[in-house]
């Protein structure tokens, strides 16, 4: 079914990008820099869950517990899959480590970058409202998030794997051991995968056209 649906749009499934690619690393850092220049990035001292038994800070999805909104007992630290509400790990009731199951947790201070979504809520609402051609379901879901109220979200985490946090081509001071969190860099990988395809030589199935990806994604290039 997927193959036939792709063929209807002239698509094939023969190129697979990776979020660990140099292209995604570069684009993710460029996006953050652009947001920073426009006053939409802020450093904040955050409180995050630290597992004493695991000896590490736990990313949102590595903390599970009971949702404070609906009582679902397997909610994750970033979202409850039962009621769909966005969460922070510290919101969970009776949290435990999804790595080891340990409840020997404590909240510690750590510095992270935040994307100031609250600053663009009005512009985003106007932009979504202008897309009358969107399916009703897409509009409904988008407006649901807006009506619930956007919040500023942390875009970095204390992890070893991921896109390094950089500024002006160097590790951002104080963020040398941090990476961008997956919910920030993974959507950018859609663009980076296109760039991978166009960067690759035709002999390996690519397009051999390093500037070609821009025609797909940039309004000023195609």
Strand line-up across the major sheet: 2-1-6-7
Report on the biggest sheet.
Answer: 4 strands, antiparallel
Distance between the termini: 30 Å
Quaternary structure of the protein: single chain
Secondary-structure-based class equals alpha+beta
Order of helices and strands: HHEEEEEEHHEEEEEHH
> Nearest-angstrom radius of gyration?
20 Å
Secondary structure: elements and pairs:
Elements: H1 2-8, H2 22-37, E1 41-51, E2 56-57, E3 63-66, E4 75-76, E5 93-97, E6 105-115, H3 121-129, H4 136-148, E7 153-154, E8 156-157, E9 166-167, E10 170-171, E11 179-180, H5 182-199, H6 213-217
Antiparallel strand pairs: 1-2, 1-6, 3-4, 3-5, 6-7, 8-11, 9-10
Helix pairs in contact: 2-5, 3-4
Structure, explained:
- Helices cover 31% and strands 20% of the residues.
- The protein has 6 helices and 11 strands.
- The chain has helices at 2-8, 22-37, 121-129, 136-148, 182-199, 213-217, and strands at 41-51, 56-57, 63-66, 75-76, 93-97, 105-115, 153-154, 156-157, 166-167, 170-171, 179-180.
- β3 (63-66) and β4 form a beta hairpin.
- α2 (22-37) crosses α5 and α3 packs antiparallel against α4.
- The longest helix is centred in the C-terminal third of the chain and has 18 residues, at 182-199.
- The mean pLDDT is 93.
